[in-house]
Amino acid sequence: MDADMQDSPDEIPQLRKMVIEDDFDLVSGWKKKRYDNTFTKNIPSKLFNAAARSMSGIKLHDFNCGLKAYKKKVVKSIEVYGEMHRYVPVLSKWAGLRNIGEKIVEHRARKYGVTKFGWSRFINGFLDLMTIFFMGKFGKRPMHFFGLWGSIFFFLGFVTFAYLTVSKFVFDNSGLTQRPLFFFALTIMIIGTQLFLAGFIGELISRNSADRNRLFS
After folding, report:
1. Which pLDDT score is estimated for 211?
2. Alpha-carbon 77 to chain mean position
3. Calpha distance 6→44 (Å, rounded)
4. Nearest to residue 134, comparing CAs of 208, 189, 75, 55?
5. Rounded distance between C-alpha atoms, residue 54 and residue 51, angstroms
6. What's the Rg (C-alpha) of the chain?
7. Bridge partners, residue 157, by sequence
8. Which end of the chain is more exposed for a tag (fewer CB within 10 A), N or C?
9. What does residue 28 show for φ and ψ, rounded to 5 degrees?
10. How far apart are CA 187 and CA 180, in angstroms?
11. pLDDT at position 47
12. What is the spatial distance between Cα 181 and Cα 93, in angstroms, rounded to a whole number?
């Protein structure tokens, strides 16, 4: 719960009931009626939640709501650091705990403190979302991302280099290193090789990690 008294403790029994009796792994609050500045917080929050729903596939209206209830296995299965607390539903889904519910909760006017929300936090939230999305989709199979793009880059560079080689003997006798396209081909081949090696190293790290057998989608 937030410490500024905007969350109501009266919601706790119903949240607990939904976890215990309705067997939800996680129940997230939804502050449907808010008492915040519409322009500086409500509109950015709506944009953020729309992006989070689209990328995660979780149909929650308010990922930012701090009022949530969890089963013990959710807490034991995820790792939260920095500002990742807003992505607990996403982390729960990636951990295989997909029974996620939502409850409309009361939102009160602020009594204490000042809001910590700002554009920097808004931007950091999207960056964190990209991190969560990448780790959830490719965290256990990094070669599927780095290897794919590495192969594409290397192939494009190789084709370009082959074209330059053929054109040198067929169309003109100018040196390869005198053409800017040669350096472009060489650069993307190097980038492709580095990406492929990054994926290979990522696979080695992933296969030797202690939580390799945890359930992820």
Report:
1. 56
2. 17
3. 19
4. 55
5. 5
6. 24
7. none
8. C
9. -110, 140
10. 11
11. 80
12. 46
Residue 70 has pLDDT above 60, yes or no: yes
Domain ranges for the chain: 9-138, 143-207
Instruction: For the chain, list the strands marked E by DSSP.
Output: 26-30, 68-70, 100-104
Beta-carbon-side half-sphere exposure of residue 109 (alpha carbons within 13 Å): 0
pTM for this structure? 0.61
User: Is 7 strand, coil or helix?
Assistant: strand
Q: Please write the tens of the pLDDT for every residue from 53-69.
A: 887 888 888 887 888 89
Using an 8 Å Cβ cutoff, are 18 and 69 in contact?
Answer: yes
Instruction: Name beta bridge partners: 69.
Output: 27
How far separated are the first and last CA of the chain, in Å rounded? 29
pLDDT single digits (tens) 87-122: 888 888 888 888 999 998 887 776 666 666 556 666
Cβ-based neighbours of 38, under 8 Å, separated by 6 or more: none
Q: Position 183: which residue type? A: F
CA distance 88 to 81: 10
Cα 123-128-130 angle, rounded to 5 deg: 100
- Spatial neighbors of 5 by CB under 8 A, at least 6 apart, are 108, 110, 111, 112
Q: How far apart are CA 211 and CA 88, in angstroms?
A: 18
Tokens of 38: 């519409």
Pairing of the two strands 68-70 and 26-30: antiparallel
Counts of helices then strands in the chain (DSSP H, E): 7, 3
Write the CA distances from 199 to 29, 113, 137, 141, integer angstroms. 38, 46, 14, 8
